[in-house]
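Q: Fold this one first, please.
A: Sequence and structure below.
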Amino acid sequence: MGGFGSGHWIDAMRRRVNTDLCRTLSIRTLKMMGVFDDDSSGEVFSVRWVNEIGEDAGCVNITPQAGGNGNKRSLRVEIGGCVTGGGSSVTGQDISITTTPYFYGGVRYWFLCPAVVDGVLCEDRVGKLYLPPGGKLFGCRQCYGLTYESCRQSHKYDRVMGYLNRLDEDNLTINQVLRLSEL
C-alpha cells in the first residue's frame, strides 16, 4: 500500500515543465526593439532576463540577417553571448523568420521553430520560442513538451467535485468524501 505508481505519485513523474520557468524570445518584443526595421541589418540587439528578485538570469545577442531581396529572413541568436567577463560558453543558433500579410496592409512576423525532434526539423510557425532550464537551444512549446500554468490549475479540483457530486448518490458523509479525495 502506498508504493510506486499508487495515488498521485505517478503524476509527479509525468508532470511537464511550465513555460513560466523558461526563457522566452517573443516576436512582439523583438518588433518593439526594432529588430525588423529596415535599417537594422547587421546591428546587434540584446535581450536580458531577470529572475524573481531582480538578478541577471541570462541574455542573448540577436543579429538580424538580410535575405536575398533585403527582407530579413533569419536571426542569428547567440545564447550567453552578452555575458561580460570570461568563462561562459556561447551557443549560436540561426532562427528563420517568415511573414504573413495582414488584410489591411503590412506583415506579421513569425519564427519558424528551429528544433529537431526525432530527426525531423519542426519549422512550425510560432510567435514565441522557449529555452527551458538546462536547454541549449530555443524551440517551440510543442517540441519541448511545455505547458501553461493555467492548464494545470484549470482541473485542479475536478476529482474532489466528482466525489461531492456523488455525495447524495452513495450516501457518503463529507468526511468520507474528503478521505476519498486524498487517495
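Q: Good. Now the second chain.
A: Here it is, same layout.
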Amino acid sequence: MQPTDQLPFPRSAYDRTAGIVYFARMLDKIRLQSAGKLRADYHANLGAGFDGRCSRFLGIQYATLCKRVQAGGSDEEILQWCFEQGTRPTDEQVLIWNKFMLKRGWRDEDDGSTQELERYKKASNLAHRNDLLTFFDYYEVDEGRKP
C-alpha cells in the first residue's frame, strides 16, 4: 500500500449524481477502499457518519451497496439500482437532503456537529479558518480542492 500522503482524496461532497449531493463521494470512498487506496483516516467513517446517512436516505444497507459498487458501473447506474432496491426520494426529499447536507456543521451545536467540525479543523491546522462553516467547506480545503 502507498504511504497515506500519496493516496488520492475522494471526490468532492458537492458533486451531484442525479441532483443528489454526497452520493458520488460515498461511492468514490467505496471504490478507493476496495482498491486499497483509501487513506487510513477515512476508514473509521466508512458506512457511518455521512455514508450511513446517505445509505439510509436511499433505503439501502451500506454493506449491500458496497457489493454493488464493487460489481462495477457508473455512479448513475448505481444510483438507479439504489432507487430500484431501496427508496426513490421525491424532488422535495432530495431538496431537503441536499440542504441538510450542504449546511451540516453550521449552527448544529445541539447535536455536537459544530463542535466536531471544530475538532476536525483543529486537527488539520485549520482552526483559524472562520470561513469553513460546514463539513463540505472543510473537505474542500483539507483535501486541497480550495485554498
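Q: Anything worth noting on the second one?
A: The beta strands are 16-17, 20-21.
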